[in-house]
């Protein structure tokens, strides 16, 4: 079981230290349910943190993983079989557009009874999972054969693929893959003709559509993402 795209070490370290808000933490926690490498790394970081607190030492990355954990080599590994959620409770299911999709427990813990999906707009549906100061957390379902218009973020975007696959000019992202984009990135995710994609996404600024007619939906983006 292997994911091709992981959170950075600094992000995993901040997560293990409990420095991130809930909106930032959820996509990372969900990734660790798919990815045993990052799950083990977070456990090691938490253990090191607990030991350093007991001993009163300055926190530092454990030597055996700190600098040997070569993210580039992990990311260049060939894609193996699709990551799955091991031992997952069958009630951790998101229902969208007639599909029932097994999701990480942390996603199911974000809402009480049911999700309030927006009507599909150009095959895109959104459901809010929460908000904290400037950060917003959404489930986004992109239908099969859809293209999200080119947009930039003016802030951070953390995305975790929960089911399916999308591509953009930077790469191909499959179930379990984690993607962090900053204010300087712009992209236009696309799904394959025969398969939609469910992602959880944290944004801390409204999306800004940059091309053609889709610029007209910037006011709509303000509505979705504010
Ligand atoms: Zn990982």
Structure report:
The chain is built from seven helices and eleven strands. The protein has 226 residues and is an alpha+beta fold. It folds into two domains: 9-74, no CATH class; 93-225, Jelly Rolls (Sandwich), CATH 2.60.120. The strands form three sheets. Strands 3, 4, 6, 7, 8 and 10 form a six-stranded antiparallel β-sheet that branches. Helix 1 crosses helix 3 (36-55) and helix 2 (22-34) crosses helix 3 (36-55). The longest helix has 20 residues, at 36-55. Bound molecules: zinc ion. Residues 3, 6, 31, 35, 37-38 line the site of zinc ion.
Count of runs of 4 or more consecutive helical residues: 7
Order of helices and strands: HHHHHEEHEEEEEEEEEH
Oligomer: single chain
The separation of the N and C termini measures 36 Å
General shape:
globular
CATH topology of the largest domain: Jelly Rolls
CATH superfamily label of the largest domain: Jelly Rolls
- Residue share in helix: 25-40%
The total of beta strands comes to 11
Which kinds of small molecule does this entry bind, naming each only once? Answer: zinc ion
Overall pLDDT confidence: 82
- CATH domain class name of the largest domain: Mainly Beta
Decide which structural class fits the backbone: alpha+beta
Keywords:
three-stranded antiparallel sheet, alpha+beta, single chain, about 25% helix
Provide a short characterization of the protein structure.
By secondary structure, the chain is of the alpha+beta class. The chain has 2 domains: 9-74, no CATH class; 93-225, Sandwich (Jelly Rolls).
């Amino acid at each position: 079981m292997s994911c091709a795209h992981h959170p950075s070490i600094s992000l995993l370290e901040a997560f293990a230290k409990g420095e991130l808000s809930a909106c930032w933490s959820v996509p990372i926690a969900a990734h660790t349910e798919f990815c045993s490498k990052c799950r083990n790394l977070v456990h090691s970081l938490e253990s090191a943190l607990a030991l350093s607190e007991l001993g009163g030492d300055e926190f530092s990355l454990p030597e055996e993983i700190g600098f040997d954990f070569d993210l580039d080599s992990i990311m260049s590994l060939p894609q193996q079989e699709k990551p799955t959620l091991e031992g997952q409770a069958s009630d951790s299911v998101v229902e969208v557009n007639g599909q029932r999709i097994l999701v990480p427990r942390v996603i199911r813990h974000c809402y009480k009874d049911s999700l309030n999906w927006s009507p599909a707009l150009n095959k895109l549906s959104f459901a809010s999972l929460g908000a904290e100061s400037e950060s917003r957390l959404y489930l986004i379902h992109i239908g099969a054969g859809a293209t999200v218009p080119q947009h930039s973020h003016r802030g951070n975007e953390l995305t975790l693929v929960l089911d399916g696959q999308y591509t953009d000019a930077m790469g191909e992202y499959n179930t379990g893959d984690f993607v962090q984009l900053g204010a300087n990135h712009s992209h236009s995710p696309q799904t394959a003709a025969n398969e939609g994609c469910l992602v959880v996404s944290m944004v801390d600024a409204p999306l800004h559509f940059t091309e053609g007619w889709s610029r007209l939906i910037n006011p709509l983006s303000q509505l979705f993402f504010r």
